[in-house]
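Model the whole thing, not chain by chain.
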Amino acid sequence: GAVVSQHPSRVICKSGTSVKIECRSLDFQATTMFWYRQFPKQSLMLMATSNEGSKATYEQGVEKDKFLINHASLTLSTLTVTSAHPEDSSFYICSARPFGQGAHQPQHFGDGTRLSIL
Amino acid sequence: QKEVEQNSGPLSVPEGAIASLNCTYSDRGSQSFFWYRQYSGKSPELIMSIYSNGDKEDGRFTAQLNKASQYVSLLIRDSQPSDSATYLCAGWGGNTSGTYKYIFGTGTRLKVLA
């Protein structure tokens, strides 16, 4: 149980392109999903917390107009990297926390999306 | 600033030995802790969760929590080369606009030598 599906797994595109990444909880509902970014040999960095039916909460230094987050249902959150540039190339990972199951529930991670901007 | 600290390693152990990974945290209000394994180029995979003082065992893995001393540990028995990865310790904390988020340690890189 507690499977999170993330799609696509890899994207290679030209500078200036907008890229959408989907994160789905397959067997549970999640009012809260999280988006992380990880550069090589570095720690996971939380970018934003996605809340179903409301605006996302962005971490300090993350441009909300650059990284658009939509959490339209209890099983789907999307991250759109708008007008991507080479410095946006990174490993993007989403996670989800099961809804309504208490304070001890872990986050479950998707497989990640490797984004390469040429 | 709420923090979770880990030794970055690498921690090298011979195959078959016990690997001991440690984590300390600063927020006494944190109640739940989680150990994840992350292979290079992959996303984190949940190994263990713990929220009560004491030990919790699952196969070759044992998580330990000591709330008075504010540390969490993970023991891996009979370590295998396939256990070589980065191990991340995380706790719930950080109330940003009413939403809790993980506070991650930087991870400990484990190398199991065949």
